[in-house]
Fold this protein.
Amino acid sequence: MAEPGSRIPVILFLDFDGTLVPIREHPSLVSMPVSSRRFLQKLSRVPGVRLAVVSGRALSDLKKRTGVSGICYVGNHGLQMEGAGVRYLYPAVRRGKRVLSKIAREIRAAVDGIPGVWLEDKQFSLSLHFRQGSAAGKKKARKLFFETVRPFVSAGKVKATQGKEVLEVRLPVGWNKGRAVQWLLKKWSPGRSVPACVIAAGDDRTDEDMFRAISPGGISILVGGPGVATRARYRVSTSAGLYRFLKELQRQLLHSSR
Ligand SMILES: [Mg+2]
């Protein structure tokens, strides 16, 4: 971090899938290209820069796939955070693990045998993936998912959310990517005397919470086409476009620090 008064700190909150790496048919196929990893590593070491990768993935999975050292990792939509002086687990999640395991067993049994549909147990949340399923398979999986989850949702034990080609079961905590971002901002820029330049980029619904959390002063960037409704102030159509922006940012920061 820069010494006070030397330059404006830059805080970056970047989603992983669909933002830093293109989405693949199966989340396990996603890995960060060496060139991207090297670039992010360099960017994270520019004086004054704080970098956090913010994802719905489990923390350990996110860290392994990103592979950049010394940065902050935010997993499970903010429930777990680690790195760059941060170590955090949302207090209420331990209790929810048992009910999630029960639901995981029920969903697995319900969708068993539908090709291309599979459940990922992320410890503090569940994801039913069906990117590789047929149209009929997806429809069936969606129906079975909601039938299975509904009693637990009605009882207030969990909530069900939808993303791109994924249905998720999450604990009904008042916490999300946006709240995690606010928590980190408080930690990283406690005083108002040094205003930070805050940038957030993401491609999915859950990233809208980040965009809200950094408004009105922040720079929010949606990675996606013109058809996607968003509250982000800026838009790039692909991950490549985001990297062009980040490279230009890095160039400017290095230039201004000379
Ligand atoms: Mg994403």
Summary: The chain has two domains: 10-90+175-256, 93-170. Residues 135-154 form the longest helix (20 residues). The chain has seven helices and twelve strands.
